[in-house]
Recover the amino acids of this structure.
């Protein structure tokens, strides 16, 4: 609570107040308020400067913290259904002011002091947060010559500082980009040389294979020519033999 009392409106509550007797509840409330004060915790106080609500708010400030009981169940009491809790000794009604402070809490927050809560959040908590944030970011109220600075001057100084930082970072990124481009170009050139070497090697291998195939083709053609020559000589010899055999037969006849 110490960490958040400067950031939000704190309204102290006692939850599950039906677990405490009515006599002990009042003592418990006093103990809680004493501990809050002794620890310096700032809680939201209902405003008493507005005439129509001053009396009600003053009375409610004296009843903090509110003792509330919640329930999602509806219980039958007499001839009507009410939201509450069923116990062996009876029914605790959430919306009965004699049983708990739920109605008081709802009226104080939603009906009577809603606008004041919003104003407190904006004027006190948000402005305090904004002030701390500006100080943390380095905004000062005086310049080098100890003259007060307007917010516009502070803004312009911060804007220029941020612009200069962006320019430096942009220049660094450009340098890194150019360096990476050069490295990539060098890598691509080396890769291109390797590919060219491989291409030249494959081209030489292809030429050698082509020459080898041409030689084999030439040798095959020569072998075919020799084969046809031998075939022609063989056919000629065969024809001569057949003619001689026929002449020999005719002569014998």
């Amino acid at each position: 609570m110490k960490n958040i009392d400067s950031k939000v409106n704190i309204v102290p509550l006692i939850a599950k107040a039906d677990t405490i007797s009515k006599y002990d509840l009042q003592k418990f409330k006093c103990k809680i308020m004493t501990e809050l004060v002794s620890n310096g915790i700032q809680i939201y106080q209902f405003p008493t400067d507005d005439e129509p609500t001053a009396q009600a708010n003053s009375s409610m400030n004296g009843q903090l913290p509110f003792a509330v009981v919640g329930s999602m169940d509806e219980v039958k009491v007499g001839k009507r259904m009410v939201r509450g809790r069923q116990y062996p000794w009876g029914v605790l009604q959430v919306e009965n002011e004699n049983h708990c402070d739920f109605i008081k809490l709802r009226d104080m927050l939603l009906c009577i002091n809603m606008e004041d809560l919003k104003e407190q959040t904006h004027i006190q908590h948000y402005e305090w947060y904004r002030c701390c944030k500006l100080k943390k970011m380095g905004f000062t109220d005086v310049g080098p010559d100890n003259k007060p600075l307007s917010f516009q001057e502070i803004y312009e100084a911060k804007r220029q500082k941020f612009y200069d930082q962006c320019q430096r970072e942009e220049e660094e990124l450009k340098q890194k980009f150019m360096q990476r481009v050069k490295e990539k170009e060098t890598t691509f050139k080396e890769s291109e040389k390797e590919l060219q070497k491989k291409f030249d090697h494959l081209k030489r291998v292809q030429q050698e294979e082509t020459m080898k195939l041409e030689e084999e083709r030439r040798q095959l053609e020569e072998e075919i020519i020799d084969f046809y020559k031998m075939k022609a000589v063989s056919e000629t010899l065969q024809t001569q033999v057949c003619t001689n055999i026929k002449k020999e037969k005719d002569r014998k006849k």
